[in-house]
């Protein structure tokens, strides 16, 4: 394993972290449209909070996918072909979510506006859930041949652990979205988001405990890396508690950053557990290792130069675009 | 063409064709429209006439629909390589992934961030800064074309690589060779010019329909002028780029070129160019054709004499070159009918676009009312709105089907590239769902654009926020409240 390979393994983790932190609250806001917003005016405001941002946030996923293809083609090929139907459903969910905001804003009848609101809500739910399910089932280990082809059955993808993982990620995204809403609105929406999260946090903590138990039973993380795995889990729980405290005390920034970091800590947990593998096979001889999965040293070298020269510029205007829209939105008056 | 039936290979190919063709309805339209909207807004900055601001907002709205559909169908493309073509991804990962990742990093971030800024900050910044945002969107979308075509060009003409002896896979040896690929720099101008044609003739077509109803005559005539100027430049540029490309093809991918010209036998020195041909593709024969002398040589070599190799001769050469590695059973003939007619559609349309643009600009001179009286011309222009989409598709049919049987020219066959894990059942399912989804999205796209057009420039809302009719000022949803706790 070379240092370039390790660097790119980390970079893929960073890109997925960016995706879950940023699109995570988009998914949460998306779910909130139908279940949290009570009327059209409220839903307008809810969507406005992510209006200028969601598209850029989704690019983190596209970049993560592209970077995985570029730096670890064997990983990309096995994961994407092996998770065929799951990824297909994710794509459908992202398609509905993606067009819904633009289409909804231009619908003239209540029925069709309603349709696209549901498209955003269900799309966001499914995307978050399926991503959670995919990554959880991936770390359980999948039936794979020596060439890296995954021949899974239904239970490879859908089992108790992956379902709990899916629900946990969905819940984390929803909470994260509501924290974002508290940060970006004033008035009734902000107050309601706070009271929702006051209830949702205890549920999440139960979910996290269940997740840890199943993680212990279903993966080799605790055998192979007890110290780091436990440390990350403790950080996860601490972040959850901090975020909960932030919600209770109406410290919107604290709550938002902590809920975002707790999503990132899930990514860190997965990448830490995977290392030095990229795919875990049920027959451990077939697991794909970082050292075998990567592109050539030359390609990694080129990609490193590109990433470190372009990414800083991207980050500058990306963050600036959030700065432009930093203001809070007024909640519409009750109809 | 895609006659492999209900097999994993056939369905995977069908899915790739369907998703890329649908995606590529919107890509050139968005690239071109971004540039045109940027030009309109720049004219507002320079001339300070509100009409140009309204123009940017009005056509910008249609741009946003197209952009949204383009984005969501684009993710399918990136995922598809791994999902359906995992053997391809393994074989090509070392080279193909890099441009894809750079595309996301250098182009998609730019595009998506600044489109968000552009949509919601009409009154927040000085007009020239706001115009800069849409220029950056245009830059981002054009850059994305550079990188994805760099990836595609390697599949057409492999450069800067070696084959790893132990794995048998492609390894990059020179990144600069990959991006200096002559194929890329011939393909790119043609694609960008095609994008210009697409956007300008869709706008021109929309204007024509409204002018037939005598609706907002000044507004649509001004829009028409901008569109046709771009349309003229783009169609001339596209023809020139296409000419360079074809002449390059003769040596680089002779089979593709021979099929475009419908040649089975070598051409004679007379240079007969078939206006029409019918083929017996099983026996590799041209059964009838209507020929014009010399045109083939003029098109191919810019001179009167010369010969072009036919598919039969090239097939023999290919067998001689590749039989050792790929076996004797390979079929090197490409889908002749599709390529032949696609090429004719493309070439004829190129000329037609230029002609219509010239005539349109003449009729639409500022002091003349000709354009309003020549209703037949408005009908033609109105119908031509759909033509660029057909022509773009035809162009890609030539490029991609003409590469048969290779997915990477001379290195990997399409049949060897599919995912071993794919099943007919799951592919059938996903094909059906994609098809319905695309039909739905296309329909909404058309309905919304039509509605926007009918509502006219006075009814423009930017994302649900109304734009003032006389000043073009847009309500600012983010400008009303300061960041403080109440």
TrEMBL record, chain A:
It is a multi-pass membrane protein. Its main location: membrane. It comes from Secundilactobacillus hailunensis. It is found in: Cell membrane. This is Cytochrome d ubiquinol oxidase subunit II. NCBIfam families: cydB. InterPro entries: Cyt-d_oxidase_su2. The gene is cydB. The chain crosses the membrane at residues 6-25, 83-103, 115-137, 157-178, 199-217, 229-248, 255-280, 300-325. It comes from the Bacteria. Belongs to the cytochrome ubiquinol oxidase subunit 2 family. Keywords: Cell membrane, Electron transport, Heme, Iron, Membrane, Metal-binding, Transmembrane, Transmembrane helix, Transport. Pfam families: Cyt_bd_oxida_II (PF02322).
TrEMBL record, chain B:
The chain crosses the membrane at residues 20-46, 58-76, 96-120, 132-150, 191-212, 224-242, 339-364, 376-398, 428-448. It is found in: Cell membrane. Keywords: Cell membrane, Electron transport, Heme, Iron, Membrane, Metal-binding, Transmembrane, Transmembrane helix, Transport. The keyword Amino-acid biosynthesis does not apply. It is a multi-pass membrane protein. Its main location: membrane. It comes from the Bacteria. Pfam families: Cyt_bd_oxida_I. The keyword Metal-binding applies. Belongs to the cytochrome ubiquinol oxidase subunit 1 family. This is Cytochrome ubiquinol oxidase subunit I.
């Amino acid at each position: 394993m070379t240092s370039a390979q390790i660097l790119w393994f980390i970079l893929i983790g960073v890109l997925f972290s960016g995706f879950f932190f940023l699109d995570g609250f988009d998914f949460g806001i998306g779910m909130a449209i139908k279940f949290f917003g009570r009327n059209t005016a409220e839903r307008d405001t809810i969507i406005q909070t992510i209006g200028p941002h969601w598209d850029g946030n989704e690019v983190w996923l596209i970049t993560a996918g592209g970077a995985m293809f570029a730096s670890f083609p064997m990983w990309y090929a096995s994961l994407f072909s092996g998770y065929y139907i799951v990824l297909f459903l994710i794509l459908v969910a992202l398609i509905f979510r993606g067009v819904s905001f633009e289409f909804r804003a231009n619908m003239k009848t209540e029925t069709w506006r309603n349709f696209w609101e549901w498209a955003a809500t269900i799309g966001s739910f499914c995307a978050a859930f399926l991503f959670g399910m995919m990554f959880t089932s991936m770390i359980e280990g999948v039936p794979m041949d020596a060439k890296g082809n995954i021949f899974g059955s239904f239970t490879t993808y859908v089992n108790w652990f992956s379902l709990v993982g899916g629900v946990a990620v969905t819940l984390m995204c929803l909470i994260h979205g509501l924290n974002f809403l508290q940060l970006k609105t004033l008035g009734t929406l902000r107050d309601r988001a706070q009271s929702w999260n006051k209830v949702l946090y205890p549920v999440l903590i139960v979910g996290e405990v269940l997740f840890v138990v199943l993680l212990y039973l279903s993966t080799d993380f605790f055998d192979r890396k007890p110290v780091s795995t436990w440390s990350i889990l403790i950080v996860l729980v601490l972040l959850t508690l901090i975020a909960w405290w932030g919600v209770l005390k109406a410290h919107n920034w604290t709550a938002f950053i902590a809920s975002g970091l707790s999503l990132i800590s899930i990514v860190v947990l997965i990448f830490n557990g995977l290392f030095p593998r990229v795919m875990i096979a049920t027959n451990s001889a077939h697991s794909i290792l970082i050292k075998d999965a990567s592109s050539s040293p030359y390609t990694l070298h080129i990609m490193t130069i590109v990433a470190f020269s372009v990414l800083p510029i991207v980050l500058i205007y990306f963050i600036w675009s959030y700065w432009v829209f930093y203001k809070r939105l007024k909640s519409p008056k009750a109809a | 063409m895609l006659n492999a039936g209900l097999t994993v290979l056939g369905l995977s190919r069908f899915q790739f064709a369907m998703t890329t063709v649908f995606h590529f309805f919107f890509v050139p339209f968005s690239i071109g429209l971004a540039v045109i909207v940027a030009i309109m807004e720049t004219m507002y900055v320079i001339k300070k006439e509100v009409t140009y601001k309204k123009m940017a907002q009005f056509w910008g709205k249609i741009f946003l629909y197209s952009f949204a559909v383009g984005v969501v169908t684009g993710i399918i493309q990136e995922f598809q390589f791994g999902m359906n073509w995992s053997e391809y991804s393994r074989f090509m990962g070392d080279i193909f992934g890099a441009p894809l990742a750079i595309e996301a990093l250098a182009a998609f971030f730019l595009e998506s961030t600044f489109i968000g800024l552009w949509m919601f900050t009409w009154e927040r910044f000085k007009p020239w800064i706001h115009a800069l945002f849409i220029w950056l969107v245009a830059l981002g979308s054009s850059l994305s074309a550079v990188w994805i075509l760099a990836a595609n060009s390697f599949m057409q003409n492999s450069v800067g690589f070696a084959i790893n002896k132990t794995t048998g896979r492609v390894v990059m040896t020179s990144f600069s060779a990959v991006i200096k690929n002559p194929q890329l720099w011939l393909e790119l101008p043609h694609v960008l010019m095609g994008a210009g044609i697409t956007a300008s003739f869709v706008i021109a077509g929309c204007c024509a329909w409204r002018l037939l109803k005598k609706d907002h005559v000044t507004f649509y005539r001004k829009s028409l002028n901008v569109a046709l100027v771009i349309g003229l430049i783009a169609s001339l540029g596209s023809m020139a780029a296409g000419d360079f490309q074809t002449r390059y093809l003769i040596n680089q991918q002779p089979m593709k070129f021979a099929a475009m010209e419908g040649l089975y036998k070598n051409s004679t020195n007379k240079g007969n160019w078939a206006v029409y041909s019918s083929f017996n593709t099983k026996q590799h024969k041209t059964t009838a054709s209507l020929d014009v002398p010399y045109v083939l040589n003029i098109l191919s070599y810019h001179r009167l004499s010369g010969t072009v190799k036919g598919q039969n001769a090239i097939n023999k050469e290919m067998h001689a070159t590749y039989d050792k590695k790929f076996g004797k059973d390979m079929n090197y003939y490409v889908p002749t009918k599709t390529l032949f007619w696609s090429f004719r559609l493309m070439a004829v349309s190129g000329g037609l676009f230029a002609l219509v643009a010239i005539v349109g600009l003449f009729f639409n001179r500022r002091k003349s009312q000709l354009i309003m009286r020549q209703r037949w011309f408005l009908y033609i222009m109105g119908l031509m709105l759909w033509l660029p989409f057909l022509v773009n598709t035809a162009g890609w049919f030539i490029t991609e089907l003409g590469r048969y049987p290779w997915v990477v020219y001379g290195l990997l066959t399409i049949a060897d590239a599919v995912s071993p894990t794919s099943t007919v059942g799951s592919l059938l399912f996903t094909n059906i769902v994609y098809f319905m989804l695309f039909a739905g999205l296309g329909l909404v796209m058309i309905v919304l654009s039509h509605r926007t057009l009918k509502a006219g420039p006075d009814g423009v809302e930017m994302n649900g926020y109304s734009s003032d009719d006389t000043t073009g000022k847009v309500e600012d949803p983010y400008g009303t409240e300061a960041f403080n706790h109440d």
